[in-house]
Specification:
Distance between the termini of chain A: 22 Å
Shape of chain B: globular
Number of helices of chain A: 17
Helix content of chain A: 25-40%
Shape of chain A: globular
Radius of gyration of chain B: 25 Å
Strand order of the largest sheet of chain A: 5-15-14-13-12-11-7-6
Oligomer: heterodimer
Strand order of the largest sheet of chain B: 4-14-13-12-11-10-7-6-5
Distance between the termini of chain B: 69 Å
Structural class of chain B: alpha/beta
Largest sheet of chain B: 9 strands, parallel
Structural class of chain A: alpha/beta
Largest interface: A-B, 40 and 41 residues
């Protein structure tokens, strides 16, 4: 707790200064254009495109975002999409991609591209992997052949793929592991590997190597990791090792510590975040970039993202519901289709229906981040957050971790959070004294507006 | 009175058809509906449960070029989830509910990619269909209730569907039922063209509707639930003919008769001049009959109809567009509308249809010869000049045509082939479709390899565009009086890669059997006359006597 207080102060001091944070790296310019509290709206100029943050990056694992054309992704105002190094090296192979002029050329995507290191597969395919100081040996799930992924190999592959942002190979341990020694080892190994990645990186003028902060849920290890990686002065930093099953209480605290501890003039990328609520919370804490398969994957299971939460389209309640998925969304799907139509055909083997819901979910997450950026730039971000949470939790049952995180972010949830005792809705102010949770309106740290 | 009403409704309906050009039995026409026009012959976009398989609409559908002119749906897929009551409650018909505004919709009784009949027996009163929600018994009343909810521009009457190999006795029963059901559909059609009150009476007459549907239907056909089908609510009788849900819908009479020419002729004659029939649907074809027998079957049906009837009535042939040759053969017999199994198969449409149809107007034999021998896997050759002798029609020289070993022929390429791994070119050079403008063969090959959904999307976009362009070429050939030439030229290109069966096969002899029959090595369709003849000649056995040919494995 003390750690958070101290870092908060540090952030406050820098953001109350005259100039807004920015940085200039060989292949990346990052410029914060507006700040409110810990949240910031920024421009990130990459070789292929200037992205606006906070931004959500849809994942095109194998070179396509499940069923969506690159034209549709552009129409929905996606700025950066992801490719997955592990899968693309498997098929079609990074050398082929290079021969075709890079991943941008192969898939015809003119905007920003980010490739991960292949490291996440360490976590998700662990039963097939063996991690040593040298690297990670995978047994390919496609044909059983052995793949060795060293930091050098990962960077070489990513150099051939040609993305604007490439990720360092990190030693990532699932947060649910109960092995402090392993976390300690992984933290230090990640640092050793970043040096190998930097040395192996053959295109620093065209591709931005981001380091990934590790350390599990241990604040000491996280601090060590941050200090060591920041010392390498990279164009951007990611907060890794999360989105792996840890509790939300642990999750937001790690994000908060890291956004407070990383340089404000450089982009901060929380990997694997895709629930809209998580995106909002992390943005309030000062994160800039997010990626996840969640919006696109959940669409294929018939789940549409809406301001109130989710719509489970297969539910019988939607059989006669002729409203659009989200009346406030102006995407092609919401202007055209009804829930009743999609209810019958989504997840029933008709791919176009899955793509329609995917289309909306991508539109939804892009609109979410766009609205956040606008709110920050117009200095009404806390109001926007309150409106967002009020829509999602009309009964005021905002989860405890969200309340704690917003408290740390300096955003009051007055009027949004229901008093914990009252069975009926009463004005929050009169019951503030009776509230036992820290969700009421006191703003910590002083200087932040709202 | 019903007949008179029906006749009047025919005259006032917004949907009508006229023939503009002929070439032999093939004809060009224009089908006008209140949701748009269709220049025929035309292939309709395939939909399953109301949506294209992979193309999102409206964006990807609108990007198809030449444009999709009309859409086919299977009315049977709207018996449940959703059912008629839900579509009625929505109020916009198929166009509104399925978001197909701007497209004429043909409601067929069949899905061209899966056969829904025959799982269980039908009765004189109801046909059995097997759809996504299981088996359903469908009476004319239930069928027409669904049609009325969908409000399509054209629809096929209820048919006792039987396959082409059905025995004569069963075929006769099917014809009898289909004719009776046509009468019922005509009556119901006329009723649904009247205002809502009569429609309500119809629904309340359905004494024992299946599982609560009738109750829903009656409950929802209240005069107070206005706007469901645009009822003006004033007057009754003939003058208010345009106020019912099916006022602007054309009924296509199902022409049955299975695989027997005589029976088909009889069935067609029986329905020929019934009042209220707005067109014809050739049912029961594309169910396993040899394609070379099909022209005779179509001819038997259409030949039994008076020429004057055919003049102003479109002919719809479901289930036939499974290959370009079959499409051409159907058009040659006078078919105007077809549904489409070409583009949307149940398996992955890995082949990009490239088809022999002109990418450019240049029709000089020299150019087309050069293109044909260019060695490219895609065969986008120019068409032959109208007055050129057939010999000028370019046939690829042996060894220089499409590479059969990688699954290509002159009308399609198989993008699974690794030969496309590094191919930066479009699927079909010169094609203006979405996929060819924006993406490469290498990318689509990669998407197929990684089993990505986008492969289906991009291939369906191209293949749909291509089929639309093929139809356009067909229409041009007909209106310029060279359709037969076009058909022959196309077939010659396709037959070129076929090889006769080798004389000495290297397969093992069976322990028990006589010497192996010689079979064609290539499992191609029966389109190549020369190839088929050779194969038949080389095969042993009393095949002509009707004994089924034993299938053999031939190792080459």
């Amino acid at each position: 707790m003390r750690m958070i207080g101290r870092t908060l102060h540090r952030v406050m001091a820098s953001s109350s200064g005259q100039t807004l944070p920015s940085s200039d790296s060989p292949a990346l310019k990052f410029k914060v254009v507006a700040v409110q509290g810990r949240a910031r709206s920024s421009r990130m100029t990459l070789p292929h495109f200037t992205a606006h943050t906070p931004m959500f990056m849809p994942v095109g694992t194998q070179g396509s975002v499940k069923g969506m054309t690159t034209q549709q992704l552009q129409e929905l105002d996606c700025h950066v999409i992801l490719g997955n190094t592990y899968h693309l090296e498997n098929r079609p192979g990074s050398e082929l991609v290079d021969a075709m002029g890079g991943l941008h050329e192969l898939i015809n995507w003119p905007r920003g591209m980010l490739t991960d290191s292949g490291g996440f597969q360490m976590v998700s395919l662990l039963h097939l992997a063996e991690i040593t100081e040298q690297g990670v040996t995978f047994q390919s799930p496609v044909d059983g052949s052995a793949m060795l992924l060293t930091p050098e190999q990962s960077i070489a592959i990513q150099n051939r793929l040609g993305a604007d942002i490439i990720m360092a190979l990190d030693d990532v341990v699932p947060t649910t592991a109960n092995d402090p020694a392993r976390f300690e080892e992984a933290t230090h190994r990640t640092t050793r590997w970043i040096d190998r990645c930097i040395a192996a990186h053959s295109r620093p003028g065209e591709q931005n190597l981001f380091a990934i902060v590790q350390g599990g849920l241990d604040t000491r290890l996280r601090e060590i990791s941050m200090q060591q990686l920041v010392a390498r002065d990279l164009p951007g930093y990611a907060i890794g090792g999360l989105a792996g099953g840890e509790s939300k209480d642990d999750f937001w605290r790690v994000v908060s510590q890291c956004t407070a501890g990383l340089p404000p003039g450089k982009p901060r990328y929380v990997m694997g975040i895709g629930y809209p609520l998580d995106i909002v919370v992390c943005s309030a804490l000062g994160a800039d970039m997010f990626d996840s398969v969640y919006p696109t994957r959940t669409a294929r299971f018939g789940v549409a993202l809406v301001p109130e939460g989710v719509l489970k389209l297969k539910n019988a309640a939607h059989a006669r519901d002729f409203r659009p998925l989200d009346p406030s969304c102006d995407c092609m799907v919401c202007r055209t289709y009804s829930r009743a139509y999609l209810h019958n055909v989504v997840t029933r083997g008709i791919a176009s229906a899955a793509v329609l819901v995917t289309y909306h979910n991508v539109a939804y997450t892009q609109a979410l981040t766009r609205n956040m950026r606008r709110a920050i730039e117009e200095q009404r971000f806390p109001d926007w957050v309150r409106g967002y949470l009020g829509t999602m939790f009309p009964k005021g049952d905002v989860p405890g971790w969200v309340r704690d995180a917003m408290d740390a972010a300096g955003i009051s949830l007055e009027g949004v959070v229901a008093p914990t005792h009252a069975p009926t809705s009463t004005p929050a102010a009169t019951d503030k004294s009776a509230a036992t949770e820290g969700g009421a309106a006191v703003v910590g740290g002083g200087a932040a507006p709202g | 009175m019903i007949a008179a009403l029906a006749a009047q409704s025919m005259a006032t309906t917004a949907t009508h058809f006229s023939v503009r050009a002929r070439d032999g039995k093939a004809r060009c026409g224009i089908l006008t509906t209140k949701n748009g026009s269709i220049e025929t012959p035309a292939v309709l976009l395939y939909t399953r449960r109301g949506g294209p398989l992979s193309l999102t609409s409206p964006d990807m559908l609108a990007a198809v070029t030449p444009p999709v002119q009309g859409v086919q749906l299977d009315a049977m897929q709207f018996l449940e989830n959703p059912d008629a009551s839900i579509i009625r409650e929505h109020g916009g018909g198929a166009h509104g509910f399925l978001c197909l505004e701007g497209f004429p919709i043909v409601a067929s009784n069949r899905d061209p990619t899966m056969y829904e009949y025959g799982t269980r027996p039908s009765t004189d009163k109801e046909v059995h269909v097997s759809i996504h929600s299981g088996g359903h018994m469908v009476s004319p009343e239930r069928y027409m209730e669904t049609i009325a909810a969908l409000k399509p521009d054209l629809f096929v009457s209820l048919c006792d569907e039987v396959t082409a190999d059905t025995k004569p006795k069963r075929v006769a029963t099917a014809t009898k039922r289909t004719t009776a059901w046509l009468d019922a559909c005509l009556q119901l059609h006329a009723a649904y063209q009247q205002r809502q009150q009569q429609q309500q009476q119809e629904q309340q007459r359905q004494a024992d509707p299946p599982a609560g549907q009738g109750a829903n239907g009656a409950a929802e056909a209240q005069p107070s639930s206005s706007g469901n089908d645009g009822v003006s609510g004033s007057g009754s009788g003939a003058a208010a003919a345009e106020t019912g849900p099916l006022s602007d819908s054309l009924l296509l009479a199902a022409l049955s008769g299975g695989g027997q020419a005589a029976e088909r002729a009889r069935a067609a004659a029986a329905v020929a001049e019934k009042e209220g029939v707005g067109g014809y649907a050739l049912c029961g074809l594309g169910t396993g009959e040899p394609p070379e027998r099909r022209p005779a079957l179509i001819g038997a049906s259409l030949g039994a109809l008076p020429a004057a009837c055919l003049e102003r009535r479109p002919v719809f042939a479901p289930g036939l567009a499974v290959s370009p040759e079959e499409l051409l053969a159907a058009v040659a017999e006078g078919v105007d509308l077809l549904d489409c199994a070409l583009v949307a198969q149940d398996w992955r449409p890995e082949a990009a249809v490239t088809g022999a149809q002109p990418a450019a107007v240049d029709a000089s034999p020299a150019t087309s010869q050069a293109q044909a021998q260019g060695g490219a896997a895609a065969g986008a050759t120019g068409e032959s000049a109208p007055d050129a002798a057939p010999a000028l029609a370019p046939a690829p020289a042996p060894g220089l045509g499409p590479d059969v070993s990688i699954g290509a022929d002159d009308t399609k390429i198989n993008l699974w082939s690794t030969s496309y791994r590094l191919d930066k070119g479009p699927l079909l050079p010169g094609c203006g479709c979405f996929t060819c403008r924006r993406h490469s063969r290498a990318y689509v090959h990669h998407l197929l390899n990684t089993h990505e959904m986008l492969a289906d999307v991009l291939l369906e976009a191209h293949n749909t565009s291509h089929v639309m362009a093929f139809c356009q070429a067909i229409r041009e050939a007909i209106s310029e009086g060279r359709f037969e030439l076009y058909q022959q030229w196309f077939s010659s290109l396709r037959a070129a890669p076929l090889v006769p069966a080798p004389r000495h096969v290297t397969s093992k002899r069976r322990a028990s059997g006589p010497p192996e029959a010689k079979e064609a090595a290539v499992a191609a369709g029966a389109s190549g006359e020369a190839g088929a003849e050779e194969a038949a000649g080389a095969a042993e056995g009393p095949e002509a006597a009707g004994e089924p040919r034993r299938s053999k494995w031939v190792r080459v």
